[in-house]
Amino acid sequence: MIVSRALCTCPQDGRSSAPPAADPAARPDAGPADPPGPGPADPPVDDLARQVRHLYVCDGLSTYRIAAITGLSRRRVGRVLSQAGVTVKPRGAGRLRRPSAERAALAKTMEDLYVRQGLTSAEVGALTGVPERTVRDRLRARGAAMRTRGRHNREDRLTVPASDLVALYLRAGMSAVQAGRLLGVSGRVVLRAAHDHGIPVRVGGPPPRGGPAQIELVRALYADPLVRRAMDRHGMRRIPAGGPITLRFPVPFRLGPELARELYESCGLGLRHIELLSGQPAETIRALLRAHGVRLRPAGGRSPFLRRWRTGLPVPSPTA
Protein backbone atom coordinates (compact mmCIF):
# COMPACT_ATOMS: atom_id res chain seq x y z
CA MET A 1 0.00 0.00 0.00
CA ILE A 2 1.54 3.29 -1.13
CA VAL A 3 0.74 6.34 0.96
CA SER A 4 1.87 9.90 0.35
CA ARG A 5 4.15 11.13 3.14
CA ALA A 6 2.65 14.58 2.70
CA LEU A 7 -0.66 13.21 4.00
CA CYS A 8 0.78 10.83 6.57
CA THR A 9 0.46 11.89 10.21
CA CYS A 10 2.60 9.09 11.62
CA PRO A 11 5.84 10.05 13.41
CA GLN A 12 8.56 10.50 10.76
CA ASP A 13 11.55 8.62 12.14
CA GLY A 14 12.86 7.32 8.87
CA ARG A 15 11.40 3.86 9.31
CA SER A 16 8.80 2.51 6.90
CA SER A 17 5.34 1.55 8.05
CA ALA A 18 5.31 -1.45 5.76
CA PRO A 19 4.93 -4.82 7.49
CA PRO A 20 8.30 -6.27 8.56
CA ALA A 21 9.64 -9.45 7.07
CA ALA A 22 8.31 -12.64 8.56
CA ASP A 23 11.85 -13.82 9.49
CA PRO A 24 13.40 -11.63 12.24
CA ALA A 25 16.89 -12.68 11.18
CA ALA A 26 16.33 -11.09 7.77
CA ARG A 27 15.99 -7.60 9.36
CA PRO A 28 19.08 -5.38 9.11
CA ASP A 29 18.83 -4.39 12.77
CA ALA A 30 18.55 -7.95 14.05
CA GLY A 31 21.22 -9.04 16.51
CA PRO A 32 21.91 -11.20 19.51
CA ALA A 33 20.80 -8.39 21.84
CA ASP A 34 17.23 -8.45 20.44
CA PRO A 35 14.76 -9.80 23.00
CA PRO A 36 12.94 -12.95 21.94
CA GLY A 37 9.54 -12.17 20.37
CA PRO A 38 6.29 -14.09 20.73
CA GLY A 39 6.88 -15.89 17.46
CA PRO A 40 8.73 -15.71 14.16
CA ALA A 41 5.79 -14.03 12.34
CA ASP A 42 5.13 -11.31 14.94
CA PRO A 43 6.71 -7.86 14.37
CA PRO A 44 8.19 -5.92 17.28
CA VAL A 45 5.63 -4.10 19.38
CA ASP A 46 6.76 -0.63 18.29
CA ASP A 47 6.64 -1.53 14.60
CA LEU A 48 3.26 -3.21 15.03
CA ALA A 49 1.78 -0.17 16.79
CA ARG A 50 3.22 2.14 14.13
CA GLN A 51 1.81 0.03 11.31
CA VAL A 52 -1.67 -0.29 12.85
CA ARG A 53 -1.80 3.42 13.65
CA HIS A 54 -0.74 4.27 10.10
CA LEU A 55 -3.41 2.04 8.53
CA TYR A 56 -6.13 3.44 10.77
CA VAL A 57 -5.25 7.15 10.88
CA CYS A 58 -3.50 7.80 7.57
CA ASP A 59 -5.02 5.19 5.25
CA GLY A 60 -8.48 5.47 6.83
CA LEU A 61 -9.01 1.71 7.03
CA SER A 62 -11.48 0.16 9.42
CA THR A 63 -10.39 -2.12 12.24
CA TYR A 64 -11.88 -5.03 10.27
CA ARG A 65 -9.65 -4.29 7.28
CA ILE A 66 -6.60 -3.80 9.49
CA ALA A 67 -7.24 -7.13 11.18
CA ALA A 68 -7.40 -8.84 7.79
CA ILE A 69 -4.17 -7.20 6.63
CA THR A 70 -2.11 -7.79 9.77
CA GLY A 71 -3.53 -11.16 10.79
CA LEU A 72 -4.51 -9.82 14.20
CA SER A 73 -7.92 -10.09 15.78
CA ARG A 74 -10.10 -6.99 15.60
CA ARG A 75 -10.06 -6.80 19.41
CA ARG A 76 -6.27 -6.75 19.47
CA VAL A 77 -6.22 -4.05 16.76
CA GLY A 78 -8.40 -1.94 19.03
CA ARG A 79 -6.08 -2.51 22.01
CA VAL A 80 -3.02 -1.57 19.96
CA LEU A 81 -4.69 1.65 18.80
CA SER A 82 -5.74 2.53 22.34
CA GLN A 83 -2.21 1.95 23.64
CA ALA A 84 -0.90 4.19 20.84
CA GLY A 85 -3.21 7.00 21.99
CA VAL A 86 -5.66 6.70 19.04
CA THR A 87 -9.37 7.00 19.84
CA VAL A 88 -11.36 4.27 18.10
CA LYS A 89 -14.89 5.31 17.19
CA PRO A 90 -17.80 3.01 18.14
CA ARG A 91 -18.80 0.27 15.77
CA GLY A 92 -20.99 1.62 12.96
CA ALA A 93 -20.10 5.26 13.65
CA GLY A 94 -17.97 5.50 10.54
CA ARG A 95 -15.08 7.87 9.94
CA LEU A 96 -14.42 10.59 7.41
CA ARG A 97 -12.22 9.42 4.59
CA ARG A 98 -10.26 11.42 2.10
CA PRO A 99 -12.37 11.96 -1.03
CA SER A 100 -11.15 10.41 -4.24
CA ALA A 101 -12.12 10.96 -7.86
CA GLU A 102 -12.93 7.26 -8.28
CA ARG A 103 -15.18 7.19 -5.21
CA ALA A 104 -16.99 10.37 -6.28
CA ALA A 105 -17.54 9.01 -9.79
CA LEU A 106 -18.95 5.77 -8.40
CA ALA A 107 -21.33 7.66 -6.10
CA LYS A 108 -22.52 9.77 -9.03
CA THR A 109 -23.15 6.62 -11.07
CA MET A 110 -25.15 5.15 -8.19
CA GLU A 111 -27.25 8.30 -7.99
CA ASP A 112 -27.94 8.22 -11.73
CA LEU A 113 -29.01 4.57 -11.62
CA TYR A 114 -31.19 5.06 -8.54
CA VAL A 115 -32.75 8.49 -9.10
CA ARG A 116 -32.90 8.95 -12.87
CA GLN A 117 -33.19 5.37 -14.09
CA GLY A 118 -35.37 4.19 -11.20
CA LEU A 119 -33.37 1.11 -10.19
CA THR A 120 -33.69 -0.19 -6.65
CA SER A 121 -30.78 0.06 -4.24
CA ALA A 122 -30.34 -3.74 -4.49
CA GLU A 123 -30.14 -3.53 -8.29
CA VAL A 124 -27.62 -0.67 -8.05
CA GLY A 125 -25.54 -2.75 -5.66
CA ALA A 126 -25.61 -5.74 -8.01
CA LEU A 127 -24.45 -3.61 -10.95
CA THR A 128 -21.69 -1.77 -9.07
CA GLY A 129 -20.52 -4.59 -6.81
CA VAL A 130 -21.20 -2.53 -3.68
CA PRO A 131 -23.33 -3.84 -0.76
CA GLU A 132 -26.88 -2.45 -0.76
CA ARG A 133 -26.43 -0.86 2.66
CA THR A 134 -23.35 1.00 1.41
CA VAL A 135 -25.27 2.09 -1.69
CA ARG A 136 -28.00 3.63 0.45
CA ASP A 137 -25.46 5.33 2.74
CA ARG A 138 -23.67 6.94 -0.20
CA LEU A 139 -26.93 8.02 -1.83
CA ARG A 140 -28.02 9.70 1.41
CA ALA A 141 -24.64 11.43 1.62
CA ARG A 142 -25.32 12.91 -1.84
CA GLY A 143 -28.73 14.14 -0.71
CA ALA A 144 -30.77 11.70 -2.80
CA ALA A 145 -34.39 11.21 -1.73
CA MET A 146 -34.54 7.57 -0.64
CA ARG A 147 -37.49 5.43 -1.64
CA THR A 148 -39.20 3.09 0.77
CA ARG A 149 -38.59 -0.62 0.43
CA GLY A 150 -40.53 -3.88 0.63
CA ARG A 151 -44.29 -3.83 1.14
CA HIS A 152 -44.13 -0.17 2.23
CA ASN A 153 -42.70 0.84 -1.15
CA ARG A 154 -44.61 3.55 -3.04
CA GLU A 155 -42.23 4.45 -5.81
CA ASP A 156 -41.34 1.09 -7.40
CA ARG A 157 -44.82 -0.35 -7.65
CA LEU A 158 -46.01 -2.00 -10.81
CA THR A 159 -48.62 0.05 -12.61
CA VAL A 160 -50.57 0.01 -15.86
CA PRO A 161 -51.13 2.92 -18.25
CA ALA A 162 -54.67 4.27 -18.24
CA SER A 163 -54.96 3.78 -22.02
CA ASP A 164 -54.37 0.02 -21.68
CA LEU A 165 -56.95 -0.23 -18.92
CA VAL A 166 -59.54 1.62 -20.98
CA ALA A 167 -58.90 -0.56 -24.03
CA LEU A 168 -58.91 -3.94 -22.29
CA TYR A 169 -60.96 -3.54 -19.12
CA LEU A 170 -63.60 -1.02 -20.22
CA ARG A 171 -64.01 -1.36 -23.99
CA ALA A 172 -63.17 -5.06 -24.45
CA GLY A 173 -64.95 -5.98 -21.21
CA MET A 174 -62.16 -8.22 -19.95
CA SER A 175 -61.89 -9.13 -16.31
CA ALA A 176 -59.02 -7.77 -14.27
CA VAL A 177 -57.32 -11.17 -14.36
CA GLN A 178 -57.66 -11.47 -18.15
CA ALA A 179 -56.34 -7.96 -18.72
CA GLY A 180 -53.49 -8.64 -16.32
CA ARG A 181 -52.40 -11.73 -18.23
CA LEU A 182 -52.07 -9.70 -21.42
CA LEU A 183 -50.24 -6.90 -19.59
CA GLY A 184 -47.96 -9.18 -17.57
CA VAL A 185 -49.29 -8.18 -14.15
CA SER A 186 -51.74 -9.59 -11.63
CA GLY A 187 -55.43 -8.79 -11.58
CA ARG A 188 -54.86 -7.00 -8.28
CA VAL A 189 -52.43 -4.60 -9.95
CA VAL A 190 -54.98 -3.96 -12.71
CA LEU A 191 -57.68 -3.03 -10.18
CA ARG A 192 -55.33 -0.89 -8.12
CA ALA A 193 -54.20 0.99 -11.22
CA ALA A 194 -57.81 1.47 -12.31
CA HIS A 195 -58.70 3.04 -8.94
CA ASP A 196 -55.58 5.21 -9.12
CA HIS A 197 -56.54 6.51 -12.56
CA GLY A 198 -60.19 7.06 -11.62
CA ILE A 199 -61.46 4.42 -14.04
CA PRO A 200 -64.82 2.88 -13.07
CA VAL A 201 -64.33 -0.60 -11.62
CA ARG A 202 -67.02 -3.24 -11.78
CA VAL A 203 -68.29 -4.39 -8.38
CA GLY A 204 -67.20 -7.94 -7.66
CA GLY A 205 -69.32 -10.75 -6.33
CA PRO A 206 -72.90 -11.53 -7.31
CA PRO A 207 -74.82 -8.89 -9.26
CA PRO A 208 -76.19 -6.29 -6.83
CA ARG A 209 -79.93 -6.21 -6.26
CA GLY A 210 -79.81 -2.43 -6.12
CA GLY A 211 -77.37 0.41 -6.29
CA PRO A 212 -74.56 1.01 -8.77
CA ALA A 213 -72.74 -1.86 -10.47
CA GLN A 214 -69.41 -0.04 -10.75
CA ILE A 215 -67.48 2.42 -8.64
CA GLU A 216 -65.07 5.30 -9.13
CA LEU A 217 -63.47 4.75 -5.78
CA VAL A 218 -61.68 8.07 -5.20
CA ARG A 219 -64.80 10.02 -6.16
CA ALA A 220 -66.98 7.82 -3.92
CA LEU A 221 -64.63 8.33 -0.96
CA TYR A 222 -64.68 12.11 -1.31
CA ALA A 223 -68.48 12.06 -1.63
CA ASP A 224 -69.06 10.13 1.59
CA PRO A 225 -70.31 12.51 4.35
CA LEU A 226 -68.41 10.77 7.16
CA VAL A 227 -65.16 10.83 5.19
CA ARG A 228 -65.62 14.47 4.20
CA ARG A 229 -66.15 15.57 7.80
CA ALA A 230 -63.09 13.64 9.00
CA MET A 231 -60.93 15.08 6.24
CA ASP A 232 -62.12 18.62 6.91
CA ARG A 233 -61.38 18.32 10.64
CA HIS A 234 -57.82 17.23 9.95
CA GLY A 235 -57.10 19.52 7.01
CA MET A 236 -56.75 16.82 4.35
CA ARG A 237 -56.82 18.08 0.77
CA ARG A 238 -59.02 16.47 -1.87
CA ILE A 239 -56.82 15.41 -4.76
CA PRO A 240 -58.71 13.91 -7.71
CA ALA A 241 -57.73 10.58 -9.22
CA GLY A 242 -55.36 10.61 -12.13
CA GLY A 243 -52.31 8.45 -11.44
CA PRO A 244 -50.44 6.42 -8.81
CA ILE A 245 -50.05 7.80 -5.32
CA THR A 246 -46.50 8.99 -5.97
CA LEU A 247 -47.92 11.30 -8.64
CA ARG A 248 -50.97 12.40 -6.69
CA PHE A 249 -49.01 12.70 -3.42
CA PRO A 250 -45.32 13.47 -4.07
CA VAL A 251 -45.18 13.99 -0.30
CA PRO A 252 -47.65 11.77 1.61
CA PHE A 253 -50.09 13.40 4.00
CA ARG A 254 -48.81 13.15 7.59
CA LEU A 255 -51.24 10.60 8.95
CA GLY A 256 -51.46 10.57 12.73
CA PRO A 257 -52.90 7.73 14.79
CA GLU A 258 -56.05 9.70 15.69
CA LEU A 259 -56.98 10.35 12.06
CA ALA A 260 -56.04 6.82 10.98
CA ARG A 261 -58.26 5.37 13.70
CA GLU A 262 -61.16 7.66 12.79
CA LEU A 263 -60.98 6.80 9.09
CA TYR A 264 -60.70 3.08 9.81
CA GLU A 265 -63.17 2.66 12.67
CA SER A 266 -65.64 5.57 12.50
CA CYS A 267 -65.73 5.92 8.70
CA GLY A 268 -65.31 2.20 8.06
CA LEU A 269 -62.62 2.58 5.40
CA GLY A 270 -60.24 -0.15 4.35
CA LEU A 271 -56.46 0.27 4.33
CA ARG A 272 -56.40 0.78 0.58
CA HIS A 273 -59.09 3.48 0.89
CA ILE A 274 -56.99 5.40 3.41
CA GLU A 275 -54.02 5.05 1.06
CA LEU A 276 -56.00 6.70 -1.73
CA LEU A 277 -56.84 9.62 0.55
CA SER A 278 -53.41 10.14 2.14
CA GLY A 279 -50.75 8.78 -0.19
CA GLN A 280 -49.41 6.59 2.61
CA PRO A 281 -48.89 2.92 1.61
CA ALA A 282 -51.51 0.53 2.95
CA GLU A 283 -48.84 -1.45 4.82
CA THR A 284 -47.66 1.70 6.58
CA ILE A 285 -51.24 2.39 7.66
CA ARG A 286 -51.61 -1.20 8.87
CA ALA A 287 -48.47 -0.88 11.00
CA LEU A 288 -49.64 2.47 12.43
CA LEU A 289 -53.02 1.09 13.45
CA ARG A 290 -51.54 -2.02 15.03
CA ALA A 291 -48.98 0.02 16.93
CA HIS A 292 -51.81 2.00 18.54
CA GLY A 293 -53.92 -0.99 19.52
CA VAL A 294 -56.52 -0.87 16.75
CA ARG A 295 -57.97 -4.31 16.06
CA LEU A 296 -58.02 -4.86 12.32
CA ARG A 297 -60.93 -6.48 10.53
CA PRO A 298 -60.40 -9.97 9.06
CA ALA A 299 -59.24 -10.12 5.45
CA GLY A 300 -61.91 -10.55 2.82
CA GLY A 301 -65.41 -9.20 2.59
CA ARG A 302 -66.49 -5.61 2.06
CA SER A 303 -65.58 -2.78 4.39
CA PRO A 304 -68.34 -0.87 6.25
CA PHE A 305 -67.77 2.02 3.83
CA LEU A 306 -68.45 -0.17 0.77
CA ARG A 307 -71.51 -1.71 2.40
CA ARG A 308 -72.75 1.80 3.10
CA TRP A 309 -72.00 2.86 -0.46
CA ARG A 310 -73.81 -0.21 -1.89
CA THR A 311 -77.11 0.95 -0.41
CA GLY A 312 -77.52 2.90 -3.62
CA LEU A 313 -77.44 6.42 -2.24
CA PRO A 314 -76.66 8.92 -5.02
CA VAL A 315 -73.04 10.00 -5.24
CA PRO A 316 -72.73 13.80 -5.49
CA SER A 317 -70.57 15.28 -8.21
CA PRO A 318 -66.99 16.27 -7.23
CA THR A 319 -68.03 19.96 -7.15
CA ALA A 320 -70.93 19.40 -4.80
Task: Give the helix/strand class.
Answer: mainly alpha
Q: How many helical stretches?
A: 16
Taken as a percent bin, the fraction of beta residues is under 5%
Multimeric state: single chain
Strands ordered across the widest β-sheet: 1-2
Low-pLDDT segments: 1-7, 12-41, 314-320
Got a strand count? 2
Taken together, the total number of domains comes to 3
How many whole angstroms does the radius of gyration measure?
31 Å
Largest sheet: 2 strands, antiparallel
Coarse morphology: elongated
Mean pLDDT: 81
Span of the ends, CA to CA: 74 Å
Describe the structure.
This protein has 320 residues and is mainly alpha-helical. It has 3 domains: 1-96, no CATH class; 101-146; 153-320, no CATH class. The protein has helices spanning 45-58, 63-70, 74-83, 101-116, 121-128, 132-141, 162-171, 176-183, 187-197, 217-223, 225-233, 245-248, 257-266, 271-278, 282-291, 304-309, and strands spanning 201-202, 214-215. A two-stranded antiparallel ribbon has the order 1-2.
Q: In short, what is this structure?
A:
The chain is built from 16 helices and two strands. By secondary structure, the chain is mainly alpha-helical.
Keywords:
disordered N terminus; two-stranded antiparallel sheet; single chain; disordered C terminus; 16 helices; 3 domains; mainly alpha; 2 strands; 47% helix; 320 residues
Layout of secondary structure:
Elements lengths: L44 H14 L4 H8 L3 H10 L17 H16 L4 H8 L3 H10 L20 H10 L4 H8 L3 H11 L3 E2 L11 E2 L1 H7 L1 H9 L11 H4 L8 H10 L4 H8 L3 H10 L12 H6 L11
Antiparallel strand pairs: 1-2
